[in-house]
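Notes from the 1:1 (GR / supervisor)

We went over the backlog. Supervisor wanted to see one worked example end to end before approving the batch request, so GR pasted a single chain during the call. The sequence is below; no edits were made to it. Supervisor asked that the structure be written out right there so they could see what the output format looks like.
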Amino acid sequence: MRRTIYIGGAAATFVCLALIMAVPDMSAVISGKDADPVTTVLHEGFGAAGARIVLCIVLISFLSCAMSLQAAASRLAYSYGRDDMIVGSTVSSSASLRRGRSRRTRCCSPPWCRP
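Structure output shown during the call:
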């Protein structure tokens, strides 16, 4: 789990630096003339349709990352409860026999991420 967080952080840093270095007129961004430099960079690099495709890919990857972090938080709360490492461990350590998952630790994740 830690490795995926490290890789995700490195990828996000790489994309951030790439977008910063791709800005054609940094003084316009600083002065406020170019209010949305990311859209400007994407439109100049990929065109209007390509920019929308890239933004859709970024949105899907963001949602996927958020869902995986919520699942990891739920698993972590269950394992800490199972090992009596947190307050209320008797509540969070029980799992459903039918599904094999903890019902009570699902509160760590939003409703759209719950299986």
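Supervisor's comment: The first helix runs from residue 2 to 21.
Batch request approved.
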